[in-house]
Design brief:
Blueprint lengths: L25 H15 L6 H8 L6 H4 L3 H15 L2 H6 L7 H14 L5 H11 L3 H24 L4 H20 L6 H16 L2
Length: about 200
């Protein structure tokens, strides 16, 4: 075959011999960055490392992002948007009362549906070396505590007590993850009524 008949590979194409069934898109880079952040910390979110993991050329990255900084900004924004959505949705569900709302939040934590504690922990570690990320974490923490405060207010508690109960509940759960507490799911479910009674007073 003559050189003039050779077609250049598209930007971000897999190396020759590594066929990919579907084109690599922007979300694939974000997902790879999330996984790298969880496994290796912020130092693992490097363009070359992500390209090797995705088995594509580095050039594919620049088809979707201008720089590593843009990728990190979007990764942080994605965390803020998606990893708190399940908490906020509790207050939008029709026909709920305070205890039902509390149980819905507990379900988010226990079943990890729409919420990843590993991703939260990775972003908190990232916040240790980035003031911007630290500010985002504080903002998200405040938003989640505000959701819990509304839940306790829906139970009938006055504003100040609802706020303190919200803080105690949230700090307890964040501490659970931060300390790396490991216990069987059956044990967690067995103790759940006691936690609920102590945290809600109900």
């Amino acid at each position: 075959m003559s050189a003039k008949n050779l077609k250049p590979e598209p930007v971000g194409a897999p190396a020759r011999g590594r066929a990919r069934k579907t084109p690599l898109g922007r979300e694939a880079w974000l997902q790879a960055a999330r996984e790298a952040l969880i496994r290796e910390g912020i130092r693992g979110v490097e363009i070359g490392k992500l390209a090797r993991r995705l088995k594509v050329t580095r050039g594919g990255f620049y088809w979707f992002f201008d720089s590593r900084k843009q990728l990190l900004d979007e990764l942080l924004a994605d965390w803020e948007r998606t990893n708190s959505a399940a908490f906020k949705a509790v207050l939008r569900a029709p026909g709920r009362n305070g205890m039902a709302e509390f149980q819905a939040i507990v379900d988010v934590w226990i079943n990890e549906a729409g919420y990843s504690p590993a991703w939260d922990a990775a972003v908190r570690d990232w916040a240790r070396v980035s003031a911007k990320v630290a500010n985002a974490v504080r903002r998200v923490d405040d938003e989640r505590i505000a959701v819990l405060q509304r839940v306790f207010e829906d139970m009938g508690y006055p504003e100040d007590e609802a706020f303190v109960r919200a803080r105690v509940t949230y700090f307890h759960q964040v501490g659970y993850y931060a300390l790396g507490v490991e216990e069987p799911r059956q044990q967690r479910l067995r103790l759940l009524p006691l936690y609920t009674r102590i945290l809600t007073g109900r």
